[in-house]
Amino acid sequence: MELRKRQEALEEEWLDEHASKSSQTKGRLRPEVPCDIRTEFQRDRDRILHCKAFRRMKHKTQVFISPEGDHYRTRLTHTLEVSQIARTISRALRFNEDLTEAIALGHDLGHTPFGHAGENVLDALCKDGFEHCAQSIRVVERLEKNGRGLNLTWEVKDGILNHRTAGHPHTLEGCVVQLSDKIAYINHDIDDAIRAGVLKENEIPLELQEVIGRTASARINSMIRDTISHSSGEKGIQNSPEMKQAMGDLRKFMFQKVYTDERAVTEGRKVDRLLRDLFSYFMEHPEEMQQEFLCLMEEGETVERTVCDFIACMTDRYAVALYHKLFIPSSWNIY
Asked: For all residues of the chain together, what is the average pLDDT?
């Protein structure tokens, strides 16, 4: 028996009846010959892991823009933390761990440089708006592999597209990633804020600490355990009323104390100026973009859409270096 078929049989035997089964996938936009070793969702996980957009996330901001220090989260480390939390929950509930991991690894592929500050700028500049979840789908369908995309399964793309709070994933695994994203960023943003001196541990309201825990590990542990205890294939993914309220209140606290901190706002203004200038420049000089983006225009894509793709793909340091190259005079030897 092929390894893939053996794994599919194990899924049918072990997974919750409401979990997604690899053998029952709605398939890919372009049909492919199945792998004899990996299930369809395992193939998607591997394709995401090896794509260029995944590697670029290591140099993209999570919350703190261009922080000095090796221990602040990046978009990549955030993604890995989401994956770990989501896999733990899916395994405990007997959901499809491979599908969960693929969605988690791909959910932020379309994020801009400089985090949500960069996303807000592109949303204001682009006629049709900009959302990183939709851009992540564009990455896997259009931008990777020289325009061929990764040809992922329907279930993985659905989870990526709908991972934001307003989204409605059609699989339990997608719902797990949606909640795991919140658990990850709430907790690691607290950790990074304390490291940056923006927040002190004892400033977290006592009534919230009593529900979610007093340390980073205790908070993550309590949120994961609460999710597992109150979720199932039949009920869906949910938290207890107390935990749901505490997580919502904690998020509000973080917006007041961290996300709208004066330093964050100041750096956000710089991001706004930098990306607006780059956007304007390439709207006037689209021929100076890299060849893979010029090919998009040759195939009928508008200049605005292509410039948006180009900027969204940039890492923080590439955007800064390009800005310096285009707008800052270079020193030269007059002798």
From this structure: 94
Q: Is the pLDDT of residue 3 over 70?
A: yes
Q: Where are the domains of the chain?
A: 3-258
Q: What is the pLDDT of residues 149-205, one digit of tens each?
A: 999 999 999 999 999 989 999 999 999 999 999 999 999 999 988 888 889 988 999
CA–CA separation, 17 and 223 (whole Å): 25
3-state helix/strand/coil string of the chain: CCHHHHHHHHHHHHCCCCCCCHHHCCCECCCCCCCCCCCHHHHHHHHHHCCHHHHHHHHCECCCCCCCCCCCCEHHHHHHHHHHHHHHHHHHHCCCHHHHHHHHHHCCCCCCCCHHHHHHHHHHHCCCCCCHHHHHHHHHHHHCHHHCCCCCEHHHHHHHHCCCCCCCCCCHHHHHHHHHHHHHHHHHHHHHHHHHCCCCHHHCCHHHHHHHCCCHHHHHHHHHHHHHHHCECCCECCCCHHHHHHHHHHHHHHHHHHHCCHHHHHHHHHHHHHHHHHHHHHHHCHHHCCHHHHHHHHCCCCHHHHHHHHHHHCCHHHHHHHHHHHHCCCCCCCC
3-258 CATH choice from 2.40.50.180, 1.10.3210.10, 1.10.3720.10, 3.40.140.10? 1.10.3210.10
**pLDDT one-digit tens code per residue, 236-291:** 999 999 999 999 999 999 998 888 877 778 888 999 999 999 999 999 999 999 99
Query: Rounded distance, CA 204 to CA 253, Å?
Result: 8
Residue 67 has pLDDT above 80, yes or no: no
Q: Does the pLDDT value for residue 20 go beyond 70?
A: yes
Separation of alpha carbons 65 and 268, rounded Å: 8
Q: Is the pLDDT of residue 335 over 60?
A: no
